[in-house]
Amino acid sequence: MKTKKLAIILLIAILFFPAKGLIAGQYNVKNIDPELLEDATVVIREDITVFEVLRRNRSRVKHRLVKTIMESKGRQEANLRIIYDPYREVNDLKGVVYDEYGQKIRELTKDEFEDKSYSEGFSVYQDNRVIETDIYPNQYPVTIEYEYTIDISIVFINNLFRPVRRSEVSLENASYTIITPKDHSFRYIAYNNDDLEPAITSNENNNLEYKWVLQQIPAVKNEPYMPSVGRIVPFVQFGSNDFVYDGYSGNMQTWENFGKWIGELNENKQNLPRRTVNEVIELTENLEDTLDIIRTIYEYMQSKTRYVSIQLGIGGMKPDDARSVVRNGYGDCKALSNFMKALLESVGIKSYYTIISSGSSGLNVNPEFPFNYFNHVILCVPLGSDSIWLETTSSILPSGYIGTSNSNRYALLVTENGGKLARTPGYNQSSNVIRQSIIANANDSQNAIVTLEKSFNGLAAERRFGLSQVSDSRKEDIFVSIAGLNNIEVNEIEYYKHYDKPIYVNKTVEFLINNHFNRAGNRLFFQPVILSGSHTVPSTSEERVNDFQINDHYVYNDTIKWKLPENYKIEHLPESIEQSKTFGFYELKYEYNEKDNLLVINRIFCKKAGLYSSDNYPEFLEFLRLVNQSDQSNIMLVPR
User: What pTM was computed for the model?
Assistant: First the structure.
């Protein structure tokens, strides 16, 4: 009898006070395939997008996104970010938080969706806004669900179905549906999966539905020297043929057509005030070399303008006219490039307004798939077999130098015949050389007085432009922090910028190294290779999964001269080293003049940019170890 009563009590407890694990919600973490948990800090449970063309100039996006954050490392993935403008209205926005069992914890409040300017403090005119959340989960795993609709007064299919965008993110289920009238055409292309094709059906409104599905994609393991996840994970790219953007009709089926549309937006935008034209003519009338004329006008443009962001509807695509730049003294990349184009035209030099994807996080241009990859505008000046490229938004870059953000990539030139793809210049290893000349005088058996002369060429110089403008004390702090030496005192430091071609920056430093020589009985030992920079050797505890990529392509060329303490000499000179690999080379040579007690070291080191097979990764690590060990090796001195 007691047993029966106890069973009834337990049944009532289960029915009315169930344990969390017994009510398994849809997003219970235990439902996740173990394969999707491997190497994953985040699991995308659902990523469902429906893009619908409603009318000639109206479209709508519905999006549902559910992510399970497995640990605090993936916390930022819990947040939502929606960029919108007057042509995009966000509706039906909601969010829900679930616990690890898939049980609802709470709904997000309206205040948790922060609505603010997209570029606060940076833009003069800015109608672009962003809705963001900033969720701080207090327990993991946790699941966040978002749903929203965006109503758009533009029909411009320029989208990606790319649910996985970084390493350590896996995917359960995602789909992308495009619904269009039967007479509305668009293009698509799949990457990293040749079988990724849409299911095409007709709906009740006699429209066509194209649906792409991705499921069960494991996380890409995060490894040192990772290539872009876009080289690994499947995704689909969609592009318009005919489109309507803020009332402006265009066609993006070919690069030529897309360039024609950009050109039409720019028509009659190059008119300059007569006074400005006269100033340019006066500045250049005694110059005969075209490069000198371009440089002079470019520097004039830099002195008269400053860069601001302007985003107002079609203003995201259409530049302000040249007169407004003269009147206001500022402009965005479109306006400043258009202004520079007008200045050159005033002295008879033709140039092309050029749109480009600036920076390193964008989608690489596929020449076979016209698409608006671009987020920036520069200028191209054709000169016979060569071209001069101008970055108009910088007040410090020299004429003809467009920097890391714009180099070695496709850009679209807007010519009189429409769009034309061209590749911007790259900066190879011969362009990017960092040279050091170091003279170290060991005035006693403890300390050394060092004079450093260092030059940076190409991309390496670009990164030092800003340093030349900071205070002396800040320069000293930066030098000490990166020198890799203990107990140093900086006496003097100077930077000099040179805008010749190729550009370069010089740095000179005089400093004292205290206690650089260490005693071992009556002997001294010291590290002769200094200021070589650090080259971290990644851990090798696990087998390499992905290929590896080297982004930087610099040559370090050092000459180090040590005047050694007069009462000591080198006991044993290390052997010289020379290693040449497909991914880099290293050379370290020693010469010792015992009579003058002078040690001369010549060092060359380079990692070559490129994508390399994972099979070569162990050899790459051994190469880095060799560099580190050789750079950090000591030399022993004995009494004379």
Answer: 0.85
